[in-house]
Write a structure and sequence with these properties.
alpha+beta, Glutaredoxin
């Protein structure tokens, strides 16, 4: 599984998302929103952080709109439990 988080400086929801992932033992790649702003905007993501998860089977989930521990748990913990 590959987890990418697009973040910006001084973003409290970004920090909370990274903290949640660290606390639950998930490794992730942090990418700067300013470097990917055009791509993110074109795909409809207008708020930070943007979380992209690519699973082993190639399925991808992308969501944005602030810190969302419920969605993270659903996608990362519950999917692992099967």
């Amino acid at each position: 599984m590959v987890i990418n988080i697009f973040t910006k400086e001084n973003c409290m929801p970004c920090k909370a998302t990274k903290r949640w992932l660290n606390e639950h033992g998930f490794k992730f790649n942090e990418l700067s929103i300013p470097e990917y702003a055009d791509i993110l905007r074109e795909s409809g993501h207008l708020s930070a952080p943007v979380v992209s998860i690519t699973f082993e089977d190639g399925k991808e989930e992308i969501f944005s709109g602030g810190f969302n521990p419920t969605r993270l748990k659903e996608l990362l913990i519950e999917s692992e439990l099967g």
